[in-house]
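Researcher: Re-running this chain for the archive, since the previous output was lost when a drive failed. Same request as before.
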Amino acid sequence: MAEKNELKVEKDVVVTMDYRLEIGGQEIDSGPIQFIQGHGNIIAGLEKEVEGMNLGEEKEVLVKAEEAYGHYDPELEIEVPLSTFPPDFQIELGRPMRLQDGEGHVFTGVAVAITNDTVKLNLNHPLAGKDLLFKTKVVELRQATDQEISQGGLASGCSGCSSGDCSGC
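Model: Regenerated structure tokens:
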């Protein structure tokens, strides 16, 4: 039990952290998140800033866009022929869609415009170009297992996912 109190957020420690994520003063996400520190399970800027935190410690972390999801890239807005989508595929403007290219790579895109012949897709991450304010609190720490360390993630469930539906993580 004493070891748990001596742990801090450092490489190979499983961290359970409560957080609130705000952009421009508006909360857009919250909840607990669990990850292995030092394995890139969370965005780089947040991982760097929580390093060294102790159990129960709270911290506000401002992560600039370049250390979060990068800058918005207008070249990631592309037009594709409408005919490349299956006839029964539902395309909704503004709604993220799981897509697959001809080589089998799966990615997420958002339809921003549809014509009779084309679909304009935005392939940027929805938070690209945005600075993120995290209000964090470390609520649990434990040493990662050998299996978790070797696979670089948690042995069960998914790390870095607070949605409850980890199929997209």
